[in-house]
């Protein structure tokens, strides 16, 4: 994943601007002393509505669902719960830090990655700011497994697999109905695979990034945890609907979402633009929260099928290894009246009893029609006979009823035979 940075000098002014613009309160999720050796500064606020929110228009689904009652775990670099669009009481739980030893909470962030992911899922709308999350009433469970980005290519190799597994299991035990994993790697770690299976068994929908390591379209690179059973793998597209050049291609890509120059919240306030499947993944997780709130009886696999079935068409067509089922569509995912149950058996066909009155009436009509046709033919014959008699009777009276003579047949013309062949040059 890549983030677009602003100069540090501007960031100093940005924090004050954000607080004035959004009414930030007293910080309560500041990093513990020594937890962030080089924390990223605040960013300037961005007022314009980002293209991703315009394209997906999640607010169309809000009359039916805003994600209330759904806990979404963000297994990442932590979440800055002081960001004004995440600071509403009850929005972000304390969570847990699995990266640093001890019993620290997960509700702080040194690098903005986890904060950005959480904000795409559930950031509150704010006056004068176009950015907001997909499911603003969802609750965030921050699970901290890293203090830096997960790698320039989105790989998870720099993170201890056991730490990732511990975070996933913790999220499942805390009752998270959606678990966002904005990380990807080429190795299949048994501890992570088993942790994902544990979460799936607890009816958590695990949503994972497809990864950003694709260099060409001729090969299918491995990607874990996206390729694990029960995981919804997410690829990234740009504003034109084209695949992000690095977004990995494979059978594990189930769906795509905006992942190029998408706007996110930054730690300590403000916003920043970022690229990568890491940031496409929370658009799907937020939509899953909308669905799980609107359709609480659906299981995690049914929610996944619903997300794919309601996806908007993408360039690759349905089932493409680059685009999956298509582009996530929050409004359709919530509102489409899908029947997830098995179709009921049709009753045996029983023909209705014959309508004798109708049959008799049809027979009478047929008889009347036949009689009318016979009378019509007889009438025509009488008319023809009358016309013939009207022509012949006067002529017969004029001849005295004598037979007429036929015209004399002309004699056959004489046949003129051609002359014998004439030779213009006599032979010798």
From TrEMBL:
DNA damage recorded as keyword: no
Signal sequence extent: 1-29
GO molecular function: serine-type endopeptidase activity
Membrane topology: Single-pass membrane protein
InterPro entries membership: Peptidase_S8/S53_dom, Peptidase_S8/S53_dom_sf, Peptidase_S8/S53_subtilisin, Peptidase_S8_Asp-AS, Peptidase_S8_His-AS, Peptidase_S8_Ser-AS, Peptidase_S8_subtilisin-rel, T7SS_pept_S8A_mycosin
One of the protein's GO biological processes: proteolysis
Keywords assigned by UniProt, alphabetized: Cell membrane, Hydrolase, Membrane, Protease, Serine protease, Signal, Transmembrane, Transmembrane helix
Residue ranges constituting the Peptidase S8/S53 domain according to the UniProt record: 67-326
PROSITE patterns in UniProt: SUBTILASE (PS51892), SUBTILASE_ASP (PS00136), SUBTILASE_HIS (PS00137), SUBTILASE_SER (PS00138)
UniProt keyword annotation of Protease present: yes
PANTHER family registered for this protein in UniProt: CELL WALL-ASSOCIATED PROTEASE, SUBTILISIN-RELATED
Family note: Belongs to the peptidase S8 family.
Identification of the protein by name: Type VII secretion-associated serine protease mycosin
Species this protein is from: Amycolatopsis thailandensis
Gene that encodes it: mycP
């Amino acid at each position: 994943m890549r983030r677009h940075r602003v100069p540090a000098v501007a960031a100093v002014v940005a924090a004050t601007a954000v607080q004035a613009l959004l009414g930030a309160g007293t910080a309560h999720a500041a990093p513990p002393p020594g937890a962030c050796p080089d924390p990223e500064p605040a960013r300037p606020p961005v007022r314009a509505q980002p293209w991703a929110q315009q394209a997906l228009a999640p607010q169309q689904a809000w009359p039916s669902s805003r994600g209330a009652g759904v806990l979404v775990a963000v297994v990442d670099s932590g979440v800055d719960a002081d960001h004004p669009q995440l600071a509403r009481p009850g929005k972000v739980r304390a969570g847990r830090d699995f990266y640093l030893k001890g019993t620290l909470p997960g509700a702080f962030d040194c690098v903005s990655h986890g904060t950005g992911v959480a904000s795409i899922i559930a950031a509150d709308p704010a006056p004068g700011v176009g950015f907001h999350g997909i499911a603003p009433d969802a609750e965030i469970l921050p699970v901290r497994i890293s203090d830096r980005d997960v790698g320039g290519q989105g790989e998870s190799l720099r993170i201890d697999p056991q730490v990732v597994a511990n975070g996933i299991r913790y999220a499942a035990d805390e009752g998270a109905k959606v678990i966002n994993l904005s990380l990807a790697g080429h190795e299949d770690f048994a501890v992570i695979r088993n942790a994902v299976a544990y979460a799936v068994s607890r009816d958590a929908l695990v949503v994972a990034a497809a990864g950003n390591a694709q260099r060409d379209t001729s090969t299918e690179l491995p990607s874990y945890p996206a390729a694990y059973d029960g995981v919804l793998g997410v690829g990234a597209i740009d504003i034109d609907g084209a695949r992000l050049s690095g977004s990995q291609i494979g059978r594990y890509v189930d769906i795509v979402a905006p992942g190029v120059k998408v706007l996110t919240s930054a730690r300590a306030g403000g916003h920043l633009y970022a690229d990568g499947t890491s940031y496409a993944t929370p658009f799907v997780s937020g939509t899953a929260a909308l669905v799980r709130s609107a359709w609480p009886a659906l299981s995690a696999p049914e929610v996944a099928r619903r997300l794919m079935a309601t996806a908007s068409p993408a360039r690759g067509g349905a089932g493409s290894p680059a685009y999956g089922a298509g582009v996530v569509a929050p409004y359709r995912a919530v509102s489409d009246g899908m029947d997830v149950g098995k179709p009921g058996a049709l009753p045996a066909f029983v023909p209705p009893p014959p309508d004798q009155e109708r049959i008799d009436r049809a027979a009478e009509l047929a008889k009347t029609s036949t009689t009318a046709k016979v009378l019509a033919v007889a009438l025509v014959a009488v008319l023809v006979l009358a016309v013939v008699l009207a022509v012949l009777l006067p002529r017969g009276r004029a001849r005295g009823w004598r037979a007429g003579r036929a015209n004399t047949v002309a004699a056959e013309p004489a046949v003129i035979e051609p002359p014998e062949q004439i030779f213009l040059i006599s032979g010798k």
